[in-house]
Design brief:
Blueprint lengths: L6 E2 L11 E5 L11 E2 L3 E6 L4 E5 L2 E5 L3 E5 L18 E6 L6 H4 L5 H9 L4 E3 L1 H13 L5 H17 L3 E3 L11 H17 L6 H7 L4 H12 L3 H19 L5 H7 L5 H12 L3 H12 L1
Parallel strand pairs: 1-3
Antiparallel strand pairs: 2-8, 4-7, 4-8, 5-6, 7-9, 9-10
Helix pairs in contact: 2-4, 3-4, 6-7, 8-11
Length: 291
Amino acid sequence: MIKKKPTLEKLTPSFGSSLLVRQHGESADKNNAFWHFHPELELVYVNKGQGKTHIGNHLSYFNNSQLILIGANLPHNGFSDRLTANGTETIIQFKSDFLGDEFLNIPEMSNIVALFERAKKGIRFQIDTKKKIGLKIEKLLEHDGLKRVIKFLEILNYLAKTDDYTLLNADGFAFEAEAQESAKIGSVFKYIRENFERHIALDEIADIVSMTVPAFCRYFKKATGKTFTQVVNEYRVVHATKLLTEKSDMSIADVCYECGFNNFSHFNKVFNDITGKSASSYRKEIMRIIQ
């Protein structure tokens, strides 16, 4: 029985620094991506790459750059796909009070405080903001001491004022992990990630968290706002978008069965419900972008 819960990751900035700034390239071991949380907020910029985004209850596949702000204690996985990563990922991790409690209370910080509150649901910034801020994030590695803090505050100030963003868990579930309760969700998400390409019976998944099927269904719906079947289908559709993007020689029918669906018409319906377009339309749009 899997009893994997979101792991509390302990972060330690360099001596004399209140920010932890790291950069990963192609050589980073993507096998080490795991479901985890930490009290620090996390700003992530991927300048080029492909992979899955799993933050709270949000799941999607990205095929270009990515700029995301993750709130404190919001469980998430690593972002880059270990099979296709070909860019650089820069991460800034910091506590909301990294400049002290009183600093958060000054009027000039009100927009940034509101940004930190929005980040509890996860924020994805759009193209214009990525272009303006991405390079500034990468250049933080060139600075240290007070200059790094000042440059970072400039970044936060811009992100706090822009409306060029999407809340990743706006209509769904974003949870702060504490927790024994989050341990159950972490176990379920991990099991789904490892088994979505086949049928997962309700009694099978309920056994993972030592619950009866009715109790599990009630718990999961209350925790995530979705049924177990809805979440499994989301994983399958996200994997389908990956295959449609990367495997141009794979037929849509093959994609359907490769993702765990056993009925082609059902796959088409679910794909359209989740993405707002048919699988064939999705592939055509992606091909136009790539070409």
